[in-house]
From TrEMBL, chains A, B:
<dbReference type="InterPro" id="IPR000843">
    <property type="entry name" value="HTH_LacI"/>
</dbReference>
<protein>
    <submittedName>
        <fullName>LacI family transcriptional regulator</fullName>
    </submittedName>
</protein>
<feature type="domain" description="HTH lacI-type">
    <location>
        <begin position="1"/>
        <end position="41"/>
    </location>
</feature>
<dbReference type="Pfam" id="PF00356">
    <property type="entry name" value="LacI"/>
</dbReference>
<dbReference type="Pfam" id="PF13377">
    <property type="entry name" value="Peripla_BP_3"/>
</dbReference>
<dbReference type="GO" id="GO:0000976">
    <property type="term" value="F:transcription cis-regulatory region binding"/>
</dbReference>
<dbReference type="GO" id="GO:0003700">
    <property type="term" value="F:DNA-binding transcription factor activity"/>
</dbReference>
<keyword id="KW-0805">Transcription regulation</keyword>
<keyword id="KW-0804">Transcription</keyword>
<dbReference type="InterPro" id="IPR010982">
    <property type="entry name" value="Lambda_DNA-bd_dom_sf"/>
</dbReference>
<dbReference type="InterPro" id="IPR028082">
    <property type="entry name" value="Peripla_BP_I"/>
</dbReference>
<dbReference type="InterPro" id="IPR046335">
    <property type="entry name" value="LacI/GalR-like_sensor"/>
</dbReference>
<keyword id="KW-0238">DNA-binding</keyword>
Length: 318, 318
DNA sequence: TTGTAAGCGTTATCAT
DNA sequence: ATGATAACGCTTACAA
């Protein structure tokens, strides 16, 4: 017991005793057994992070932010790759099993209809744009405002026929929110919203962006600006436009969303929205640790929205 | 005890008893407490992965491969960001503390001199090019062969003054091995090795590649090919050459190393070495699980080298 | 086939 | 200030 008191810096240990204990610990190369401590305390000091994929510029950056924020609180992070709605739900129910004190879950496949499933008696914070007002704390991007700002920027640079690259819009999600922001900006500028300029893609990678840009160019679609809802799509679009012999920013201006590190060095460098990833990561970990530390069952749940800033580069003539 | 037998699928449980137990488990929403099981078994089912940074195209891809390989074995992965030699050594000694059954350590800051520190009585597999023949299992890249192949490819495409972008060469590491491969290829082709063509940079990111390429162009250095020891450097070089008004591949050909996903879509698309990341990840996890499962103390240690293939794209006129 | 006992290493509680 | 005791929930060994 005295050893335990020394290890945990409890008061009421005579300095000379403490010294003796520390000396013995050093001599015997003693290490606390965390499995035993966890068993006793019911805590592991590990939080789970469930993301669709670690190897993506966006989720990689998010993971880095969360690992850093957890480190500041002496927590470690276990990573789960979800890749599908089913796995997201699994991560949720397996979180306690996997020895996590709590879970930060990126909801990319789940939708508002799954919201009830989030009711677990285990600390959870959800990231993403598909579930709002659910039974858990939630951190989202400033989608509407940022999409408006990005579109407005294209307008200010003289674009009049602005296309958007987004996903299928069936329910509230990243695509629908950013599409709404785009529409609001067009309306505010007095520009018509032309359905042929709304280009929907199945995935948000560079491949899809490049393919779609080539199709748009070949089909003779009239456009002078493109707002892509991810930087990956936007870099793909830059590639596709180059293939089609279209000059950026002279003929068409392009703006993305995420400010992944590659966007600064692409040719041309990519204008984009920087969504304060680190701030969001910090808030998510903060909410989770509060839930972990509070003994009482769930009180009201918080919905937080991050900040953003516009980064103007060559692709919009900056 | 009978419950335990049911949970662990032990024989000698009467089917009717098993049913009763399962029914009660369902009714009570029973979950095994892994902390208790871990304490008893001395295993956690979690392996640690220590990488310099998760948010990099290369380490992100590596992490994805390792998570996938671990998943196939029903293991989870805890991620540690090291970022420095000290943290790499810490990860080593903290691995057992952090409840990992074993550790996959990327040695980017440690060097051969630290090799002895790897002698821990805890399963460890080291990745990287700085430590060979150490007291642990080790998986490395096919640096020499791949660097030779990349350089030879530039020669075959008609380059005669081939520069290399690598790091400072003080001891055996990624830079030195790839530089050696480069030299071997030049020699085999009967080309002289000009010291002014060996360009050393402090870090291997896009920023450094771009800066250095601009300097090389401005200084009037005569070169018609560049072998960059990472794709990030190479993409930066493409950017820097574009800034200097130099045409790729017409005036200068560029090849990288890693085959990160961005390289396919860059403008121009980047020729590169694809080092079979998934194969290396699979081998690392395989070696680690063997160490974890074998009771005997360390037998001989294995040094494995991965495969590679050349990916020819626009930046070398492919 | 089922159940009892002991112990994994820690810490909360309570005596001393 | 120090230490004895019990308990966290599980599994190995062994008894019934």
């Amino acid at each position: 017991m005295t050893v335990s008191n020394v290890i945990n810096d409890h008061p009421n240990v005579r300095p000379s005793t403490r010294e003796k204990v520390l000396e013995a610990m050093a001599r015997l190369d003693y290490r606390v057994n965390l499995a035993a401590r966890n068993l006793r305390k019911g805590r592991t000091g590990v939080i789970g992070l469930a993301v669709p994929e670690v190897n993506s510029p966006y989720y990689g950056r998010l993971a880095a932010g969360i690992i850093a924020a957890a480190e500041r609180r002496n927590l470690r992070v276990g990573i789960e790759q979800t890749a599908s709605r089913e796995n997201e739900l699994d991560a949720l129910s397996l979180s306690r099993n996997h020895q996590y004190d709590g879970l930060i879950l990126t909801a990319a496949g789940m939708s508002q209809a799954d919201s009830e499933r989030l009711k677990v008696d285990h600390p959870v914070v959800v990231l993403g744009d598909r579930i709002f007002g659910g039974p858990v704390d939630h951190v989202a991007m400033p989608n509407l405002e940022a999409a408006r700002a990005a579109t407005r920027h294209l307008v200010e640079r003289g674009c009049r026929r602005i296309a958007i690259l987004c996903g299928a819009v069936e329910e509230v999600d990243t695509s629908s929110l950013r599409l709404t922001g785009y529409r609001q900006a067009l309306e505010a500028a007095g520009l018509p919203s032309d359905p042929t300029l709304i280009q929907q893609v199945g995935r948000f990678g560079m491949r899809e962006g490049a393919q779609r840009a080539r199709v748009m160019a070949r089909s003779g679609l009239d456009f002078d600006g493109v707002f892509c809802i991810t930087d990956s799509l936007a870099m793909g679009v830059l590639r596709g436009l180059a293939d089609a012999g279209i000059q950026v920013p002279e003929q068409v201006k392009v703006i993305g969303f995420d400010n992944v590190s590659e966007s600064e060095f692409f040719i041309p460098s990519l204008s984009t929205v920087d969504p304060d990833h680190d701030g969001m990561a910090e808030r998510a970990v903060d909410l989770l640790t509060r839930r972990i530390e509070q003994i009482q069952p769930s009180t009201g749940h918080r919905d937080l929205v991050g900040d953003f800033s516009l980064v103007v580069r060559e692709s919009t003539g900056g």
